[in-house]
Amino acid sequence: MTADPEGGAGGGPTVLRMLLGAQLRRLRETRGITREDAGWHIRASESKISRMELGRVGFKERDVADLLTYYGVTDLAERESMMVLARQANEAGWWQQYGDVYPAWFQSYLGLESAAQIIRMYEVQFVPGLLQCPEYARAVIMLGHSSKPPAEVDRRVQLRMTRQQILTRTRPAPPHFWAVVDEGALRRPVGGRAVMRAQIAKLLEAIQLPNVALQIMPFAHGGHAAHSGSFALLRFPEHDLPDVAYMEQLTSALYLDKREDVERYLTVMERLCIEAAPPAQTQQILEEIARDLDRG
Q: What pLDDT is recorded for position 125?
């Protein structure tokens, strides 16, 4: 089986689940039905209805059909279009072939990343995964998985490299990726000097892409807005879908989509972009770091 990050509707089942969930939520709210009542109607819990409406779980066609009936949707064409969406939303995303090497909580992010129109990110410790070269990716992965068999490490590296194809895909249009990276992440010799030289070369190549912007937060700036650590913000082309803020932890991840929560991270991101060196200086800073690596 070959990975196909370009296949599907701009992000495969994840975005389809989110769209279907948003439509079901609107239908429920229009009828003045509570999540508890909707859950009781399909022999499920209120929390399951919440997860369905957020697109966090797969959809049983029977559940969707029962909810449509309960919400008073009788038009055959409307029902059929939503049932088709439910079937498509249950298809496997390309990343699921790597399900043996990533935790379950990371699956949602892979789908969101593939579906996003804009990805904004702040990284304090490592180069963002979408911009890592294979040698650097392997060194980062080995920090947490040194006891894993070489074949599994290879698959983890392959997954990361496959993810990067979204930046150069042609269908759908590639996302705009804008990252602010702490200078410490670029000067920390992960994997050794040779690996870091390769990584800096990768970044110099990546910033030539028209949809990639990279800013560096210099040591000289001191403290800055993102004192709480790394995070990502994702925006989608579908207007029905909310922005999502994502924070990765050691054994789990946090996904925020409430407007007030996301707005706080958007504000921090804007401040980071102002405080960091402007994109026009990125190439110069990277070349300076490369010269320092060559001097040893």
A: 94
Beta strands in 124-175 (DSSP E): none
How far, in Å, CA of 121 to CA of 214, rounded?
Answer: 10
Strands of the 212-217 sheet, one edge to the other: 212-217, 176-182, 118-123, 231-235, 244-248, 253-256
Q: Domain 13-89 falls in which CATH fold?
A: 434 Repressor (Amino-terminal Domain) (1.10.260)
pLDDT tens-place string over residues 147-170: 999 999 999 999 999 999 999 999
- Domains in the chain: boundaries: 13-89, 101-295
| Residues 13, 93 contacting (CB under 8 angstroms) | yes
The C-alpha atoms of residue 210 and residue 96 are separated, in whole angstroms, by: 29
pLDDT greater than 90 at residue 6: no
pTM above 0.85, yes or no: no
Write down the architecture of domain 101-295 according to CATH: 2-Layer Sandwich (3.30)
- In order of 79, 82, 100, the CA distances from 67 in angstroms are 10, 11, 34
Residue of 216, 93, 243, 90 lying closest to 166 (CA atoms): 93
Contact by Cβ (8 Å): 237, 117: yes
